[in-house]
Each structure stands twice: as structure tokens, then as C-alpha cells.
Amino acid sequence: KLNSRLFIAEKVRDIDRAVKSGFAINALSGGVDSSAVTMLGHKALGKRLKTYFIDNGIMRRNEPRQIVLLFKRLGVTVDIIDAKEKFFKALKGVTDPEEKREAITRTFYKDVFGSLVRNSKAKYLLQGTILTDVDETVAGIKRQHNVFKQLGIDPQKAFGYKILEPLVQLRKDGVRKVAQALGLPPSVFSRMPFPGPALAARVIGEVTPEKIEMVRHATAITEEALVSQKAFQCMAILHNDRVTGIRDGRRDFGMQIEIRCWDSIDARKAEPTRLPYEILSLLARRIVTEVPGVVSVTYNITPKPPSTMEAI
Ligand code: XMP
């Protein structure tokens, strides 16, 4: 059984011992994993940890600003790096799900982080990889962007820095306990999981700024409409194929949004939430009226497995 206080003491000591008098950097996305790592690193290294928020252009609405403000209140300075163009350029023309994940990984670790590390004195990257990320990557189900050593990739050789993964023994439920014990607020420790490839994991086919804007808008509506359900995770997915709809009495050949909402403990298995019909109905109505170009909304009722939570 996990003892959060002992766990924190042990990891703070490990980070301190590894980095010694040197510097480390980390990327904060605002999710529970990277937030817990930021606090562990901050406890161990103080100002010798440099924390960045990489604005990749595929995050949810207002996410960068909210997260920077929250950590400011906790005494942690976070610098925002605008890398939107780099990510969209890397994603241009890419339609295969694993190739999209690969493009995001490469842009993040090589282009953006590589140059940040080179321009800093850091030799270490602290990273929030958890056990589920490793399991699914090693099993070949999905390439999680933050798994290297377990695939035989040496980050030192590939990117020029060492990686520390203090949460790699834990699953989501364990990370939540540790995050709470680290003094993070409920908005962080009970935050819904959000994938590393962010909204790009929720666009089928090529990722463009326009499609990201559509799925971002639908995501905001979905999260707002379903927050009271206390599900493990909920999301909106933008499909690639169009369907015929009618708007203002005219044919409208438009886009489709798929809603998924999951009950799960640790993301290994999941069941679709039995959402009340009235809530689904209201959600569908809001999405087709508020998101331009969307004419159809569906709800996915397949469990994981064989489905997985994210679309790509
Ligand atoms: P799947 O889609 O594999 O998702 O059922 C399981 C859980 O992991 C999250 N997820 C990711 N997290 N990098 C991450 O850090 C990723 O590439 C990634 N893909 C999926 C997903 O949100 C769910 O909670």
C-alpha cells in the first residue's frame, strides 16, 4: 500500500542525489502527473529546477494561462514557450495515428526541449511517466510520448540529456494520492487525465489549426456539460468523414463529433458512463448550434478493451 509521505521523501532524495549541485528542467502540462513531478522537483531542487509550459497549440481553451497562474500561487515560476508553429508544421499532412504521435514526440523532445536543454545548464529532464504509459507502449497498444528507456531508447544518446521518472511505479490513482499530499489543489489532484498528444489525439485524420479549434470548442462544451457526472474522463472527438445534415432548411454537408465518457479506476479497463439521456440530448444540441460546421453528435458505448479511451 502506498504511503504518500514516505514516497515523497524517497523521491525528493533520489532527485537530489541524481542532480547533485546541477540543474534540471521539466515540462508542466498542468495534468496530475506533470504537476506532481513539478512539486517533487521543486522540493528537491528549488530554483535549480526550471519549469516550462510548452504551448504546442493543441491544448484546451485557456489552459496555458490558468496553469501558470495556479503554480505562481504555489511559489513555482513557470515559463511559457510558444511552440505552436513547430507542432502544426510537424503535423502537416500526417494522417496515421502512430505517425502523428511520433511527430509530436519528436517535436517535443528534439526540437523544443533539445534546444531548451542546450541553452540551459540542465543535464536532467524530470518527467511524469506513469506505469500505465509504460505498459501500453511496451505492449504495442499505443506509443505514449514519454516512454523511452523501456523501448531501448537511450535519451542521453537520442536527445542529449538524462531522464528521471519519479512516478514510474505508480498508476493514476497512486499519483492522485501523492499529488494531494504534495499540497496541490483538488483542481489538479482530481483532474481528468489528458493525453500527451493533447487534442491531436482527438482529431481523426490530419491535424490542422482549424480542426483543433473545432475540437477545442466541442471539448469545452463537453467538459462543462459533464462535469457534474464525476466520470474518470470525458472527451469530444472530431471525425474526418462528413455527413449530410440540414441547417436552416438547407443541406449542410458537415462534420461529426463523437462523445466519449468513461468510468475507470486506473485507465487499464473502462466502461462508458451511463449518462442520463437528457444530458446527452442537451450536449448534442449545444454542440451542433455552437460549433460551426458540426451537424452530427454521437455517443460511444464501447468498453475498453477493445476500445481505447483516446481516439488515436
Ligand atoms: P488509452 O487511449 O490508451 O488511454 O485508453 C489511457 C489513458 O492514458 C491517456 N493517454 C495518454 N497519456 N500520453 C499520455 O501521457 C499519451 O500519449 C496518451 N495517450 C493516452 C488517456 O487520456 C487515458 O487516460
TrEMBL record:
Gene3D superfamilies: 3.30.300.10, HUPs. It holds the Pfam family GMP_synt_C. Residues 2-191 form the GMPS ATP-PPase domain. Its EC number is 6.3.5.2. One of its GO terms (cellular component) is cytosol. GO terms for molecular function: ATP binding; GMP synthase activity. This is GMP synthase (glutamine-hydrolyzing). Catalyzes the synthesis of GMP from XMP. It is an enzyme of class 6 (ligase). It comes from the Bacteria. ATP binds at S29, G30, G31, V32, D33, S34, S35. Pathway: Purine metabolism; GMP biosynthesis; GMP from XMP (L-Gln route): step 1/1. Keywords: ATP-binding, Glutamine amidotransferase, GMP biosynthesis, Ligase, Nucleotide-binding, Purine biosynthesis. InterPro entries: GMP_synth_C, GMPS_ATP_PPase_dom, Rossmann-like_a/b/a_fold.
